[in-house]
């Protein structure tokens, strides 16, 4: 982060000792340490939020691409059915032609007799 060596830290400590004195120096060092800790935590939380947003954005982009691919495949799969059931095709005409006479396959209709229940 910062390019501060041992000599620079020692020089800052000596100047702080001279300016603040031996009585106020420990509280000042503690306060500076707390500020640095808060700054590090703030930077860390901002970095994690940014990385989370980037991850979510990438997921949205991937989902969008996959959705477009699936929509394209679906439209390609629908094409043969659209062509088969177009108005000009014989398959569509056979489906559209009405049945003139209903077909009854039950035994009662073929014999012509309606049986009464045995209890009556």
From TrEMBL:
The keyword Translocase does not apply. One of its GO terms (biological process) is protein transport by the Tat complex. It comes from the Bacteria. Residues 68-120 are annotated as: Disordered. Keywords: Cell membrane, Membrane, Protein transport, Translocation, Transmembrane, Transmembrane helix, Transport. Gene3D superfamilies: 1.20.5.3310. The keyword Cell membrane applies. GO terms for molecular function: protein transmembrane transporter activity. It is a single-pass membrane protein. One of its GO terms (cellular component) is TAT protein transport complex. It is found in: Cell membrane; Membrane. It holds the Pfam family TatA_B_E. InterPro entries: TatA/B/E (IPR003369), TatB (IPR018448). Belongs to the TatB family. HAMAP family: TatB (MF_00237). The Tat system comprises two distinct complexes: a TatABC complex, containing multiple copies of TatA, TatB and TatC subunits, and a separate TatA complex, containing only TatA subunits. Substrates initially bind to the TatABC complex, which probably triggers association of the separate TatA complex to form the active translocon. NCBIfam families: tatB (TIGR01410). PANTHER family: SEC-INDEPENDENT PROTEIN TRANSLOCASE PROTEIN TATA, CHLOROPLASTIC (PTHR33162:SF1). Part of the twin-arginine translocation (Tat) system that transports large folded proteins containing a characteristic twin-arginine motif in their signal peptide across membranes. Together with TatC, TatB is part of a receptor directly interacting with Tat signal peptides. TatB may form an oligomeric binding site that transiently accommodates folded Tat precursor proteins before their translocation. This is Sec-independent protein translocase protein TatB. It comes from Neptunomonas qingdaonensis. The lineage of its organism: Bacteria, Pseudomonadati, Pseudomonadota, Gammaproteobacteria, Oceanospirillales.
């Amino acid at each position: 982060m910062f390019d501060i060596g041992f000599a620079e830290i020692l020089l800052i400590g000596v100047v702080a000792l001279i300016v603040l004195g031996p009585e106020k120096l420990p509280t000042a060092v503690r306060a500076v340490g707390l500020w640095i800790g808060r700054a590090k935590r703030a930077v860390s939380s901002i970095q994690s939020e940014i990385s989370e947003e980037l991850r979510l954005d990438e997921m949205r982009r991937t989902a969008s691409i996959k959705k477009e691919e699936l929509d394209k495949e679906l439209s390609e799969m629908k094409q043969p059915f659209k062509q088969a059931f177009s108005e000009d095709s014989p398959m569509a005409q056979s489906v559209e032609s009405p049945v003139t006479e209903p077909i009854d396959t039950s035994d009662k209709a073929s014999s012509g007799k309606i049986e009464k229940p045995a209890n009556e």
